[in-house]
Amino acid sequence: MPSVAVKLYSVFFKFLFKQRLQNRIQSPTQLPDPFGVTSRPDESVANSNPSFSDGVATKDIHIDPFTSLSIRIFLPDSALTFPEPDSKPHSKPNPTLLRVVVDSETASSLRRNSYGSSIAAESRDQEEASRRNSVGEGLGSYKGYAPGLDNRRKKLPVMVQFHGGGWVSGSNDSLANDFFCRRIAKLCDVIVVAVGYRLAPENRYPAAFEDGMKVLSWLAKQANLAECSKSMGVKKLDSHNRHIVDTFGASMVEPWLAAHGNLSRCVLLGVSCGANIADYVARKVVEAGKHLDPVKVVAQVLMYPFFVGSVPTRSEIKLSNSYFYDKAMCMLAWKLFLPEEEFNLDHPAANPLVPGRGPPLKLMPPTMTIVAEHDWMRDRAIAYSEELRKVNVDAPVLEYKDAVHEFATLDILLKTPQAQVCAEDIAIWVKKYISLRGHEFSY
Question: Which stretches does UniProt call biased (Basic and acidic residues) (predicted)?
């Protein structure tokens, strides 16, 4: 059974969450808000931190001028390791030495470490100008990480993460989500892109799903712009043209992704309702084919997905009053998310096993499913995984005993031993698909 602390926190959480849902249902009918919201005022958030204070730097970006869609990038300090020419073991540099500083002697030393002592003075000046453009003029006040342009840095896979919260709450910069994403970035050795999608009821279905695809399209655009900027820079026509290239890259290409991200090894990770978004995005990526190149989704992780259906499963009957999210509360959340005229528990967004929900399951990427013993959503997630295995998709299910819904993503509050084990299990499985040679420790 869950610990006493988990039970007490569950009671408190359910009381607050039910109150929030009822307040939004009872409030006057809201007109659709195209811009929308991605977090609630009562949500505790973690500020972005562009320095590697605990081994992971974070950065917030608003990527859509027409909506509130935003992302938070989690960059582990392993991205700063340079490959050794003699194939000796990597040694991690001190991240503080790679921060932007005003002192010219320190900056000169940093350039020598990155490019070697034989680089010409003009090239050093150009690189310093590019670094200034990427972070702004206030270098002394910024004191954050600014990536250089050296291609010897190893490229890390990218994991796109969708938070939970029952469609109406949660955020990509909440304390709990920030803590979880930092843990995943370290263990999986990936760049995590946490998506701040629009919440209901201000934006009902399909807004959150569309935001998921917008992020994938934005990542594809980033990769293409970075490649374009790189190919233009190789020409080295004259100082004027190089300045245009530098300005183009600094203003349109996200330097953290351009310098360190390998989008040909992309993983989707969804939590609760975020797992519904991840699965939708995976299906749309399959349908898009090469239109999202060079982005390639190689796997997805569905953590206690928020699947429902009109015919109740055994766990939905037996555990309907389970910890944190009971079934009655979740029905309110679905009513706030789905348009009134479309409300149906067999809606394609709710039930992954309804007929005609394309594309064919055999085309789906490898899918790991995480379920908790004391979660009423457990059985339907397992059933979906079984259907994937029937068509030869690698779709393991990991069930954690004495665990509750969101046990791994609320670990900053719950402090359960299963949370760390779950994150390690995810890392072991994911590395099979993000490695370069099919071995989890090869990249």
Answer: 122-131
Distance CA 77, CA 94 (A): 9
Type of residue found at 185: A
Q: Classify residue 276 as exposed, middle or buried by CB count within 10 Å of its CB (0-12, 13-18, 19+).
A: buried
Can 272 be counted among the known catalytic residues?
yes
Residue 187: its H or E element: helix 175-188
**pLDDT at 236 exceeding the cut of 60:** no
Structural tokens at position 47: 């500020």
Q: What is the pLDDT of residue 323?
A: 83
Collapse the DSSP code of 302 into the 3-class scheme (helix H, G, I; strand E, B; otherwise coil) and give the result. Answer: strand
What are the structural domains of the chain?
Answer: 4-92+152-434 (3.40.50.1820), 100-143 (no CATH)
Interval 284-301: pLDDT, tens: 999 998 889 999 999 999
**Pairing of the two strands 70-76 and 261-271:** unpaired
> pTM here?
0.83
The angle formed by the CA atoms of residues 378, 382 and 387, to the nearest 5 degrees, is 150
CA distance to 125, 323, 358, 396, 422, per residue, from 363 (Å): 50, 35, 10, 16, 26
Report the candidate in 147, 181, 11 with the shortest Cα–Cα distance to residue 79.
147
Among residues 39, 272, 315, 322, which one is catalytic? 272
Would you say 433 and 264 are in contact if contact means Cβ atoms under 8 Å apart? no
- Residues 432, 352 contacting (CB under 8 angstroms): no
Token reading at 145? 């990480």
Q: Are 427 and 417 in contact (CB under 8 A)?
A: no
Distance of alpha carbon 342 from alpha carbon 330, whole angstroms: 17
Tokens found for residue 121: 């003075």
Q: How far apart are CA 347 and CA 272, in angstroms?
A: 17
Edge-to-edge strands, sheet with 156-162: 56-62, 70-76, 191-196, 156-162, 261-271, 297-303, 367-374, 397-404
Question: Pick the catalytic residue: 130, 174, 405, 411?
Answer: 405
Q: What is the pLDDT of residues 317-367, one digit of tens each?
A: 998 888 888 888 899 999 999 998 999 999 999 999 998 888 899 999 999
Cβ atoms 191, 260 nearer than 8 A: yes
